[in-house]
Amino acid sequence: MANKKITLKITDMSCASCAQAVEKALNKAEGVTEAQVNFAAEKAYVTYDPAQSSREQLIEVVKNSGYGVKEEKAKTSFKIGGMTCASCSAAVEKALNKSEGIYEANVNIATEKGSVEYNPEVLSKNDFREIVKNSGYELLSFEDEETDKSRENAEDELSDDMKKVKEAKKKMWGTWAFTIPIMLWMIPEMFFGVAWPNMQIFNLGMIVLAIPPLFVFGRKTFITAYRAVSHGSANMDVLIAMGTGAAFITGPAVFFTPIANYAGVSAMIMAFHLTGRYIEETAKGRASQAIRKLLELGAKTATIIEAGEEKEVAIEDVQPGDIMLVKPGEKIPTDGEIVEGKTTVDESMATGESMPVERTKGDEVIGATVNQNGLIKVKATKVGKDTFLSQVVKMVEEAQGTKVPIQEFADKITGIFVPTVLVIAVSTFGLWLIFPDALREVGFWAQSFLPWVDPTLGTFTLAIFATIAVLVIACPCALGLATPTALMVGSGIGAENGVLIRKGEAIQTMKDVHTIVFDKTGTITKGKPEVTDLIAAEKSSEEKLLQLAASVEAGSEHPLGEAIVRGAKDREIEVKEIKNFNSVTGKGVKAEVEGKEVLVGSRKLMEEAGIDTSSFEAELKRLENEAKTAMLAAADGQMLGIVAVADALKEDSIKAIAELKKLGLKTAMITGDNQRTAEAIAREVGIDHVVAEVLPDGKVDKVKELQAQFGIIAMVGDGINDAPALTQANVGIAIGTGTDIAIESSDITLVRGDLSSVITAVKLSRATFKKIKQNLFWAFFYNLIAIPVAIMGLLHPVIAEMAMATSSISVVTNANLLRSENVQADYK
């Protein structure tokens, strides 16, 4: 039996350590051949042998690890043929309920309908047809469409992400509302040695003010920590909970024993922790918008022709075989075949190529593409999950589930750091109970220059004192801030320079990128066809050539003709009025301009008119070898010249590619264009490797091949068809002149269209990652020095908190030094 792949939505994960715990448990499960858990997406991607395991068993594995699984649910109903009695309906119902991915199925013999609640990530409508067929019956038709349910599920998921961000923000500010008064209240004693006149009120105030940050806004931290410990693992929440809990307990204890009140410190720790959590949720929320952008591209309604009458229906109600009327400027509702009319269609959302394509009767069209200038009737052939757009949505989701080679660096280190600190804290408590006299001697020695050290206190009190100090000083605030602060500063610098960093992993991965792969149209080229060459005959001029050609083409709807008209307007050349316009299909156009019969088109058009083009043959071949579309123009039987149209290179493409090579990077280009066009562009720009004639749904596979060949790669592109490829690449970089979906699916988005921003992205990523490594080093160096001091009882928890804050400030200060880095392209 073939292996199956499933996706599980994991809940209650708070850090990368949690993701690692779930992944480890799944990989150990019977029948599992591969399991990957993406902490940012909060999803597990599992490949398993259905003969040895099942979805339900894998869900149980996740739950036994201390985490939850959110089940995607959808409902559908269908008409069943061939049933004659209750036994028939019972047989179908039993078969449905036994199938993996179905939560509940009911079959009604009276209505001859089946109603199913199921997981859309496991089953499709074709699966229902097979189940019913294998039961001996026939599924005749569906009563509803899955598209609506899939859209609903995706929107629910996105809504959940937004709720998480809002909730994290609420908790953060709620905690600081109580922590700031605590800090102000503690300043007199901390910095000036002035104690409050009534310490009873002070101590009680610290306890009261610390309760909301810990047990209201920070409640989930304690719950998550408990779950982790109860399943034999430790994460950042465990350390936070122990540190804040230990510090808070000293508040009530101060009324019974001579020990300092550190309840206020516990609130400070929680405030820093929840601030980091808010930053994390915000970043994750931005990464989850790609699917929403994809869904928004689709049409919401369709105009159906029934019995000769037009009727507007919701897109969910469109069925295969329906005839849809599509007017100029409207989106084509779903994939189909033109049964009447002809037009040009803007397929840039599907192909990434800006040049509209001609479509006529019998041609296939893609749902969500734009009908430009003709009235057409389209027969729906694919609906729901079978459409091109739905497949792209699926491809993006799958690509996002692939792990990048380098994981979150800080989380990896923290995975080792947390258990180590816990062991040290417990050991500290034990050491003070076992060797109190020896440790007291250290205290007596330091008492003269550390006034807070009081070795005369009881052994148990001193043990608690030291243990709290270890937990507080080792609380990984600096570690937690090391990466996000550098990312925040780096992203701020990037925004100032037109580079938007959307995913932190990109910065870490960019330093190891071997090759940068470019899509051609709209990335290396401008993405808009324009006039590139004007070659006038001896008795003509470039201005006259373009004026007459543009005047004739003004009556045409062809994209190349539009480019010629646009070229004339850009050069402020007047377009004349025409008479007797005629379009010769596949050859060109002709019309009367100022009394002259003007022809614009191919060799065949000129040959049929008896016009000699031999003097221009050399230029025609040259232009064609440069991958340009050359159109001949003639007036009253005499050649006027050649107008060449092409998608021109961006002004800085050649310079940008050259500088990227200076930075030690290889370059490649991937495009749907023909091999000759692609190679011509690559030669002109200086690109090393070319992959041409790639279909939209084949780009992901080509990116995988390039990864196998070159290793870690970055992909630069635009267009909706680039979205899966951008997410498959180790780093996806979207040009801002592309579509929104490409931007949402990228790791880095370039606001400006010029390629100098790619160089900025490379330089900025390298510089930012360098700062991240420096920050992590200093954060660890600080802990290595501070923890031994805390173990010996020489570090007051308040001072420990100040030291921790100082370490955080040093991390932020170092990150801000990024602003002195030159991240601009050398040629700018």
First and last CA, distance: 59 Å
| Average predicted confidence as pLDDT | 80
Spatial strand order of the main sheet: 18-30-29-28-19-26-27
Oligomer: single chain
Described by the principal axes of the CA atoms, the overall outline is globular
Strand content: 15-25%
Number of strands: 30
Structural class per helix/strand content? alpha+beta
Helix content: 40-55%
Biggest sheet descriptor: 7 strands, mixed
Which stretches are poorly predicted, pLDDT < 50 over at least 5 residues? 145-150, 286-290, 398-407, 737-742
- Whole-number radius of gyration? 34 Å
Number of domains: 6
Q: Number of helical runs? A: 29
Relevant terms:
7-stranded mixed sheet; 29 helices; Alpha-Beta Plaits; 6-stranded antiparallel sheet; single chain; about 850 residues; 6 domains
